[in-house]
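SEQUENCE-TO-STRUCTURE ENTRY
===========================

Backbone structure tokens: a row of integers, each naming the local backbone shape at its residue.

Task: work out the structure tokens from the sequence, keeping to the layout shown below.
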Amino acid sequence: MIRTICCDCDNEVPSGTLGRCPVCRGVLRPAYPDEAVNQLAMIEPGPGIDRYRAILPVSIAIPSLGEGDTPLLASRRLGSALGCKNLFLKNEGRNPTGAFKDRSGALATALAIEARAKGVLTASSGNAASAISAYCARAGLPCLILLEPGNPPTKLRQALATGAQALLVQGIFAHGPDALQDLLLELAASLGYYLAFIWAPVNPYILEGIKTVSYEVAAQLAGAPDVLICPVGGGDLFVAQWRGYMELKHAGVIKKTPRMVAVQSVNAPPLLRAFESGADRVPPLSYANSKISGINAPFTGEHALATVRESGGVVIGVNDGEVLEMQRRLGLEEGIWVEPASAAPLAAIPNLLARKEIHPGDRIVCVLSGAGFKDAHLAEAEAAEIGRREPAPFNVAEIARRVSLTAD
């Protein structure tokens, strides 16, 4: 029997409860019986998160587009250049819609079907919209996306292509997390839709799909990494993996859990500020001015702060310019085109090494949260300039001459 309890005060609430703990305002989470968690020792990784249903908060089959089973790649060049001997890259951009949130989208759709909802509602800066829309289309459910003006158009096109109704709402994320939660809960009730906002303080169940990342990493590495470095906006990707590693340890699949390192932009640093000040809560900021769209969030959940402390980890800030440069290097030196947020963990490595928060011999996994087409500004001007050039004639000598000129 799956229970829903508060991470802070252990208060138990009815299963399916949304929002925060009614007693202490803590973040809620599902808790699974030992016999369910122990099944992790017998489950083989592979495509589709339905294989893990015994340790997910849903009882029906989870719709699948082949999510999960993403590659864990040993760095061939960047690791040694940065000073790391054992650097691995978990490429979540290989999911069906190009981001880790496909794992959430699949579970959210199953939860909506189980609740007999008329449709699914979310608010999203992009990746969640794409994921939830695709899985709703797979299941035949209507999907409504509320989004902030100015999102990367490639992300919006994905959601529209799979049938979502998109509505721009000015300042949807600017009124603070409590006001956003109230608006979404009221609207979902009015429409008869399931609220699939991917942030545990609003919906404590959906991030459970994301913890399957850690199941895969442990299988691919034949154990847990020493350090897990992750980009953090709201915090669900970060927290979900920690929960997964804790479950793996409980099941005896791994012997130790990793130190969890959260990376935020210094231009959108709610978790960083709370960690550095020793706060118990993560106050929302009045601004989020990062160019890194995937982590440009003014609020992070307390569940992320608790994860840092429980794991003996750290929060570190990176400059937007460092992130964009690392995005470029990932393409040139590893052949992996990622969205900017994916490059944030790698951009943090030089500072982490200098501060001795990580060590050259550590087995380090960096989570690459999404594919490059999600926010496709890298090489955009160069590609446009090439398209304006006069084409070479169908002639070997002239083609070779132009290649030589380009190389020079």
